Amino acid sequence: MRAFEYFAPGTVGEAAKFLRENEGKAVVLNGGTDVVIQLRDRLINPAYVVDIKRIPGLNELRFSKEEGLHIGACVNMNRLGGDENVRTYYPFLAEAALSVGSKQVRNRATCAGNLINASPLADTSTPLLCLDAVLEVEGPDGKREIPINEFFVFVRKTTLQKDEIVTGIRVPYYEGVQGIFTKVSRRNKVDLSTVCSTVMKHEGKYRAAFGSVAPTPRRLPQTEACLNAGPLDEARIDRAVELALSEVSPIDDVRASKQYRLDVVAMALRRSLESLG
Q1: Could you tell me where the DSSP H helices lie in the chain?
Q2: Considering only CA atoms, which of 229, 268, 228 is closest in space to residue 245?
Q3: Which of 19, 77, 108, 181 has the fewest CB atoms within 10 Å, i.e. is most exposed?
Q4: What is the pLDDT of residue 184?
Q5: Is residue 88 classed exposed, middle or buried when 0-12, 13-18 and 19+ CB atoms within 10 A define those classes?
Q6: pLDDT digit string (tens) for 124-143?
Q7: Which helix (H) or strand (E) holds 146?
Q8: How far apart are CA 258 and CA 213, in angstroms?
Q9: pTM of the model
Q10: CA 173 to CA 104: how far, in whole Å?
Q11: Residues 8, 253: Cα–Cα separation, whole Å
């Protein structure tokens, strides 16, 4: 690991200004479960590490039916998955959060970091895609919001600018929402997803999102259009599965073959729809 200077700003504005002044030479440290590994393996060699964990307000987790759920950038996975309101109103998001790594890892890993890392298999991405979450961002030029559907660009690439910091995630409230989170991996615990998915039902309409089947986690708009075009019968489920397989583009890698992933997509979608009814 190369030597670096450690900087702990007191505000988001101070952190963003530092990132702009040291563009290309600084990396943000939050939970650190990805950054520390990248530092150790010399995948990144920053001159500065900017620790945002002590910035006031970034560790807030709050909920109201009027404003929905707010997940601060520094809220870790165990706290998110164990929160009573999250478990009550967004149970499939809670399940996704608690599927990440081990308990020890979840004490450090954050939901915001899971998205910013922009891995195709980010577990919390699929429920948040279905929920139309919005990322709250701040940089030297001010604040803005990025809908999660516009956030992912490619593997490890997002629309976040190099001098911007995600300060939180806002999730709308849906009365009576139902959802099924599915994670298939080589081991039952402490493993990365081979395929992950969320299928959500709200007011009789369906949404579906999959991870580890394309360069980014993604919603399946054609599949959703089919599901929402009429009553959910066996023929419609069969057609939705066909469309889902045409909307994903998995690859062969060390975790699974392309064909295995396609089989899992079909299985996960079908079982989720049958469970939701």
Answers
A1: 12-21, 35-40, 77-82, 84-89, 91-97, 103-106, 111-116, 125-130, 221-227, 234-247, 258-276
A2: 268
A3: 108
A4: 97
A5: exposed
A6: 999 999 999 999 999 999 99
A7: strand 142-147
A8: 8
A9: 0.96
A10: 30
A11: 38
